[in-house]
Design a protein that fits this description.
Blueprint: E1 14-17, H1 21-32, E2 37-40, H2 48-52, E3 56-57, H3 61-66, E4 70-73, H4 78-85, E5 96-99, H5 105-117, E6 121-127, E7 140-144, H6 147-157, E8 162-165, H7 172-199, H8 205-232, H9 242-258, H10 264-281, H11 290-293
Parallel strand pairs: 1-2, 1-4, 2-3, 4-5, 5-6, 7-8
Antiparallel strand pairs: 6-7
Helix pairs in contact: 7-8, 9-10
The chain binds NADP nicotinamide-adenine-dinucleotide phosphate.
């Protein structure tokens, strides 16, 4: 294969099913890298900007998937995905389906079983960006499924971002995707609560965020330390104990209350810390809070 992005010579031809915001960005990144791209969307008008750039518009999913070995699907959800794929399942044998539609790990398993039943090689994927980030080399695209299938298509998938193979279990990409989105939303809400708190003193979001981003770097160091503690099941309270943090979060609650903020988030955090204390973790590190988040009887 040639690596010249300006020429399509030697590049794998790819089909993209679904041209919403994300599917359109995926197809555009593949075109940027010189791939021949066939597209299909339920609403064909959305294909026009891609057709203007050289994509071939297929009238049906059947037509879109007929000639290409690699099919990338990105529609709203799994119901939509199988609404598109079920009618043509028998024609997909021997092809590779890379499913970048968001779903649960269980849906990833179901899709992989469907693929085995129809003789399709299947990779499940999770996109760790919004459409403007697609095609950026640093952005993570998570994949799970057969290692050999990933290895075969890795060069093409590299057009979308940095392809990370998490393992053969097809549910892993969605598992990580869900966990990472949970981290994002929790971080957003903590940051927004802080932004509202300082904003009550007429401090602009940008000024606070500059300091908050430096703080997140320090927090990431704490996370590294705590990850090792969690893996070892041992939470030495030699930095800041749960007891100390319960006292400290009262300052945040007081500051928020005095400024009329919605304090639901810090109240939830304090309640969770108190549950950890009630389970005997008052003098342990913050990492011990995981003990009250885990399913009782689950892995320790
Ligand atoms: P979107 O702009 O709303 O596009 C949805 C796509 O699904 C469109 O192509 C739509 O076709 C198609 N679709 C919906 N219902 C369908 C059905 N019953 N049959 C056939 N096609 C159907 O959404 P998006 O932002 O592109 O998201 C697509 C997937 O990527 C989702 O699973 C989303 O969670 C995931 N994702 C998105 C982002 C993001 O930042 N946007 C990031 C990571 C992952 P029509 O055009 O005909 O409506």
């Amino acid at each position: 294969m040639l690596s010249d992005a300006s020429s399509g010579i030697g590049k794998q031809a790819v089909t993209v099913l679904g041209l919403g915001n994300m599917g359109s960005a995926l197809a555009a990144a593949l075109l940027d890298h010189g791939h021949e791209v066939t597209v299909w969307n339920r609403t064909p008008g959305k294909a026009q900007p891609l057709v203007d750039r050289g994509a071939r518009l297929a009238a049906t999913p059947q037509e879109a998937t007929a000639s290409n070995q690699l099919i990338i699907a990105c529609v709203l959800d799994y119901d939509a995905l199988f609404g598109v794929l079920d009618p043509l399942a028998d024609s997909l044998a021997g092809k590779t389906l890379v499913n970048l539609t968001s779903g649960s790990p269980e849906q990833g398993h179901e899709a992989a079983a469907w693929a085995v039943q129809h003789g399709v090689d299947y990779l499940d994927g999770g996109i760790m960006t919004t459409p403007p980030g697609v095609g950026t080399p640093e952005v993570m695209f998570l994949y799970s499924g057969p290692t050999a299938v990933f290895a075969t298509h890795r060069p093409t998938l590299g057009a979308l971002g940095d392809p990370l193979h998490l393992g053969e279990d097809p549910g892993l990409a969605s598992l990580y995707d869900s966990a990472l989105l949970g981290l994002m939303w929790a971080t957003f809400n903590g940051w927004l609560h802080g932004t509202a708190l300082v904003g009550a003193e007429k401090i602009e979001a940008r000024a606070y965020t500059e300091i908050a981003l430096r703080w997140l770097k320090t927090v990431s160091v704490f996370m590294d330390t705590y990850a090792a503690q969690i893996d070892e099941g041992h939470y030495p309270g030699d930095d800041a104990t749960v007891d100390v943090q319960i006292v400290t979060i009262d300052h945040l609650l007081h500051a928020g209350e005095s400024r009329g903020l919605d304090n639901a988030l810090p109240e939830l955090l304090k309640a969770t810390m108190e549950r950890a204390k009630a389970r005997g973790h008052g003098s342990d590190s913050y990492a011990s809070v995981i003990e009250v988040l885990r399913k009782p009887g689950g892995p320790s």
